[in-house]
Amino acid sequence: MKTLLAIDDELSVREAYRLILSDRYRVLLAPDGATALRLMRENHVDLILLDMVMPTMGGMDVLDEIVKIDNLIPVIVVTAIKSVATAVTAIKHGAKEYIIKPFDVEEILLMVEKALAESQKEQELTMRRRADASGFEAIIGQSAALNQTIALARRAAQVDSTVLITGESGTGKDLIARAIHAGGGRAKNPFVAVSCCAIPNQLVESELFGHEKGAFTGASEKRVGKMQVADRGTLFLDEIGEMPLEAQAKLLRVLQGGQFYPVGSTKVIEVDIRFICATNRDLREAVKQGIFREDLFYRVNVLHVEMPPLRARRDDIPVLIEHFVAKHRLRVNARARRIAPDAMAVMVAYEWPGNIRELENMVERILVMNSTEEEIRREHLTGVLKTAAKADAPAATEFEGLGLEEATSRLERRLIMRALEQCDNVQSRAADMLGTTRRILKYKMDQLGIEAAPEREATGV
């Protein structure tokens, strides 16, 4: 059942809303702006009916605050003021519709139903557009670690040099690869992705270079490889560290001269391809182990972009969670629109070994398991987020009454102070413990007002 919030200082009007709407919707009633904003923060609200003329806090001021809290909630202005200027101003401030008192029962019902239907369509469209975005706008977050990566990736997009993207599984290496392609001169040409670890070793060469009919057992017809498909575009070789050595040798020839032979063919194929490669392996170590060619390593490692793990960009966790809640809540028919500060603090403190992929799966699971809840609270994480900050998890009362930004800052401060204490104030060690760089750690310390204590010697035991 959808929840409506009706705001009007007249008791008779509020009672009219209750009588008209309560059969179809859950109706919350507020006599003033302050009460309405409190109810908004405490409840999941699908639509708001707002009076313009109220004592203390006028309707336009309330509307501005509503938009700050959640600009996706449709607001219908209901007022006795018969003024075109007022209606236009309200729409400009974020109202969806405008209706004059006294209103007709059928009119208000139809307007509410229409606004709710349009709101759901708009939310679904927004999520689809964001999911389909292929450029840098699809990358969510503003942390220092992520900004540093994006800045380097933007520079890589402006040239045709080969890019090697490294990072743990689930950090979004494919997303940054697509962004580099979309931001470059080949954006209108194909972006072809190949997962080297998903292809059986004996078929890797056929998948990349194609084959002639009868080239090997099972080759019943000629096949065009991904190299030809990607001509004049970008070929993204995901998990290149898993590529067999024989295929590595043929790939090296393409990188050096832009030519290759399909399997079983004597006819050379020429291609113009921009290569982007990704791996979660340490390729230097793979070279030492003899499972990755050294000459190929130097060919693919022209521009190096490293995707930071999620634990190194904790600033981004709240906004990522909000994005995934908005993305999945309608699809799984969940009511929750927000995460309580104490639950958010636990999720920010969690190490997320599976990174963004794990975070998205976890958010979807929590929504499914708590689909009738208006808000996801700390107790809803029990049994789902099994290892989340057990000993050091802050008490729920510590975050009561705090906004999301303040709760997150308080938790970040706690984590940094603890790391510094455990590392004898050696910032480089503390940065390693937190999965970030010393420069980013210093930036966060300055931002949070943490004074740097004298460092002890970083050498020795």
Q: How would you summarize this macromolecular structure in one to three sentences?
A:
By secondary structure, the protein is an alpha/beta fold.
What does this structure look like?
This protein folds into three domains: 129 residues, Rossmann fold; 172 residues, Rossmann fold, CATH 3.40.50; 138 residues, Orthogonal Bundle (Helicase, Ruva Protein, domain 3), CATH 1.10.8.60. 35% of the residues are buried. Strands 2-1-3-4-5 form a five-stranded parallel β-sheet, sandwiched between helices. The chain is elongated, with a radius of gyration of 28 Å. It is built from 18 helices and 14 strands. The C terminus is likely disordered. Helix 4 links the parallel strand 4 and strand 5. By secondary structure, the protein is an alpha/beta fold.
Give keywords.
461 residues; 14 strands; disordered C terminus; Helicase, Ruva Protein, domain 3; Rossmann fold; alpha/beta; 5-stranded parallel beta sheet; 3 domains; elongated; 12% strand; 18 helices
What portion of residues belong to β-strands?
5-15%
Give the total of beta strands.
Answer: 14
> Radius of gyration from the CA trace?
28 Å
Q: Can you tell me the overall shape?
A: elongated
What is the mean predicted local confidence, pLDDT?
Answer: 84
| Domains (count) | 3
CATH hierarchy: architecture of the largest domain: 3-Layer(aba) Sandwich
- Kindly report how far apart the N and C termini lie: 62 Å
Largest sheet: 5 strands, parallel
Low-confidence stretches: 387-393, 456-461
The percent range for helix content is 40-55%
